[in-house]
Amino acid sequence: MAHNIPQQPILAHNTAQLPITQAFIWLEKGGDIFLNQNLDYECFLPYILYLYDDSQLQFLDRYLQIETIRKIISVNQNLVIPHIIKNSYPRIPLTHTTIQSQGQNVQLVSHEATTIRAVLQDVYDLVKSASVFYEMSQSRVKEYCDFIKANPLLFKYLRSDVVRNLEYYLPTILYTWDLSLLGINYKDFIRALVLLENGHILIKCMTTNNPQMFEEIAATLIDIHNHLPSDYKIHLRNMLYTMCALAPHHTFFIRMKLTDLKILPEFALELTLTSCIDVPLYLAGILARDAEWLKFNLFKTDTIATLQNRLMMTLKKELAEPVVPPTNHRNRLCVLLRIICGLNYYFHSYLNQNDLEACLQILTHAESDRLRKLYLCFLLLFWQRILSDSRIRPVFTNAFSKLVNPGNSDLYLIFAYLFNTSQFEQIQEICRETLTLDVMIAQLDNDSEAFIRAQFKEDILAKCALEIEPTTSFSGLGLSKVPQDIAFEVFYVMLTGGVFHKGRVDIQSWILRQLLQAEIPIHAKIGSLLKAYVRSIFEDHLYRSPMTKISEERIIEFFLENVTKVTPAHVLMTYYVLTFNDFAKEKKLSHIQNSDQQKTAYSPRLTELIQARRILTEAEKCDNGYAYRNIYPELLGLMASNYPEIFDVESFLIEEDREIDIPFNNDDVKNIVMTVISELEDSTESVLALKKLEAIAPEYLLIQSDSLILCLLPKLLKREQDPAMLDSIHEIWHSLYSIHPHQAALLFINAVRSEEDRGACFVERDIMLDPLVMFRCDSRVFRCPQIFQIFLKVLKFYMVGSRLRLRRAWQDELTNKDVFPLNKLNYMINSQETLLLSLLMKECETKPSDSQNPDILDQIRTAAFRFLHHMFIENMESLRNLHFLGYATDLIPLTTRRIESMHLCVFWAHELISHEDPKKQLFGLCLAGQLCEVWPMQSTFNLAKNFIIPTIRRKTLEVPENVLSDEGKTILPILVLLFNLFNNLRDEVVALLRALEDKFSSSKGYATTLGAKRKSLTFVSYLLTSINKIPKSTKMDRVREILPVTQ
């Protein structure tokens, strides 16, 4: 057992050995009895007669039993063993029949042989029955013990009051006879002996007649402990006590076995008190290794009182007469103090005033860090007892203030933290770690707790707390394996508890230092700490907050100076800035004025500088997500609310598929970019250079992105299209966009500016607030598929970002009385997005130049329609708004067939048809007709029946004019579509056409009319013919004549 106390040689309290003990030791060591004939050998006679020639043992004739033993030894085992009744031992169920059968005596040649036979029969039955019951449960063993106790005739020949000289018969049988024929031996008998109430008497003869096997016999007994029911473990204890009394020098062995197996703790303590002088040493070892063994056992009050008195006497002597050297003295005090603390918890010991005062004197000897911490644990364990006594309370105050003071900043801070947060469990954990004991600390009452807290002053605490760094370990307190765990926790509690506010201390420089020095994985508490710091800037307690935010210029300087690699400082600085801005805007929305510059949000100049996508990717992927796992969910939310435009699935997939980056020198990248630009006329050379750039990780391209995009794109647009070069620039731009979409998008817009805008340079905020400027770009962008795809991604980027920026701008004006309502803002945003989509549709219209290369227009339309589909899926309202605004009707057949989400128009197309604006009605009818043709289903059938046909009827048949208008000629062919699509509408379509035919026919028989009316009739007749209906007019030649014109 580990210990620190130097000890004297271990002696028994009673140095005068008993005669039997002297003889035992002599024989155990193999001493010659002829050399020490005066020893008391009475209990050892069978052992001696077995070892020595009887003819030389005349000096043993002084013992009256010698002749009896000689007769016992002379009995021939072969005459006895055959008479042993096998399988006669008790079994379950236990009955009295066995007892009666054992009572039948068998008379042999001599009295000794007959006695030996009876004894051996009981030995056999006991051993065999014990082996059976030991294999069962403890309850069965208890049942058997109770049965033996209730039946005195059972194993009666193993009782000395029945068999005279039994102590000589047993060792003779078990040690000298070969009992293998019976399947038993002396060890089995010793194991079974525990079941008998007189086992402690019989174990003496078994031990004295085999002294060299003492430890083996003791181990055999101890091993049977777990088989015994609790009520009968006293048998084992009494047997071991008998053995210790016989051979006190073996007490330490027995105690060691008990301790190792964690059994009979009270007996082990009694042995320590009565037979050993190593009380502190033994208890120190137990508390260090097997303290739980003591926790779940009951001890006699007298035993605990004796133990405590012995320890206090040792402590007082050590304080009065310190041992030398001083190191030994301090070590002894450490051990004693730890034991006293352990006694308080495990034995519920009570220290009187004198004992407490003696323990409190240890402070004057506490010159080592270990002793001071143990002394502090003593104060904490006994604080309720000490603080309740007014006489010794000042001693506690003095001692506590000496141990926990600003000079010892670690302890001072940690206990201020623990008491201010009422973390008594953590204080308890400190004691447990220091003492290495599972102790518990009593809860303080309100007065005592207030008394303790009064020892800590806020101004001193605040200054001490600023000395905390992530490397502050608070060593030896057992608070955490990682220093930052408790360091940041302490600072966080001080901050949230208002310590810095009350101490008038600004922690901005400390926070900035932690951000810049952060390492991965970042500490779990740093996110909460930054939020608490932000909150503390805005929250004034009884007076104005001393906290200041980190300077915007300092943060901008940091981001501008560190652009090549994303570090923990980038991630944490971004997290801080976005958290601060959200908090500032929240306060503003709550109508809390932020006139103080320290409480205003950071400007767009800073937020636009943050490489949001790159930082978010780093936080997600670094160390497989482990490095920033504690702030990533919140960081993701902040990014989503401040930079929604960066959440582009395609770009995330590009980033996901990237292979391991190969480092590139910045000069090498620059040289390749210059090669591309300078050798543009040599297509082959430029393509090879661009292919090299495609293979370079975007982090290395980012520095040269200005030259690459701003210089190269305009030149590519001016040249005749080179597909290979355009494909390369498309891939390179997407690679840049995947890590820094803000910069990639802005560079693209400035690179493709029209000639009119060449003198100006767009900035991100301008485009976010007015994304319509994007369509002022070079018109060649809309007929270059690769560049147009980039344009669409940038359009989506700024559309998403614009929503947020416009809402933020509106929020900034909330304090202005003239600010318009939120619904108007939403209307403006929707109108802007609708106009953007309308402009995109306009670029899909056929232009004269498209006749030269129709495939290009088809690619442009495909890309635009795919973009529109995604927009419509994200926001169905945009689909509705675009169609209410309208676009060229010749695009309707294309949009309905190539935009998958156009079927959603069915739900509100009737509103367009019923609109009061004739142009919208016409657009709605054209759209509805195409919807019916592309998606002939119940909903389009209802649309045709309830809205399309009635509206056409109203616009053509129910008007006073007797001629078809241009609008009528546009919408009447829709009837032919409906006729071919829906069988149930054919009669209604034919009836309407016939009515129109009648309307435009001459009122006098078959007279032929001239002019517009006749053209109208001819047009209707053609429609009837197209659905296989014969017109009433017989002038079909005239119909065929007019047909080409009307078509």
What would the keywords be for this entry?
Integrator complex subunit 2; disordered N terminus; 62% helix; INTS2; 1047 residues; mainly alpha
What overall form do the CA principal axes indicate?
Answer: elongated
Number of strands: 0
Distance between the termini: 111 Å
> How large is the share of residues in beta strands?
under 5%
Structural class: mainly alpha
Radius of gyration: 51 Å
Protein name: Integrator complex subunit 2
Organism: Gigaspora margarita
GO cellular component, one term: integrator complex
GO biological process, one term: snRNA 3'-end processing
SSE layout:
Blueprint: H1 19-28, H2 45-51, H3 66-74, H4 77-80, H5 97-102, H6 111-134, H7 138-150, H8 166-176, H9 186-193, H10 199-208, H11 214-223, H12 233-246, H13 251-261, H14 265-275, H15 279-289, H16 291-295, H17 301-320, H18 326-346, H19 353-360, H20 369-381, H21 383-387, H22 393-403, H23 409-420, H24 424-435, H25 446-453, H26 458-465, H27 483-496, H28 499-502, H29 508-517, H30 526-538, H31 552-561, H32 568-589, H33 604-607, H34 612-621, H35 632-642, H36 649-657, H37 666-678, H38 683-694, H39 698-701, H40 705-718, H41 723-739, H42 741-751, H43 764-769, H44 785-812, H45 822-843, H46 854-874, H47 876-885, H48 892-898, H49 909-913, H50 918-934, H51 938-956, H52 966-971, H53 973-981, H54 986-1000, H55 1011-1026, H56 1036-1046
Protein name: Integrator complex subunit 2
InterPro entries: INTS2
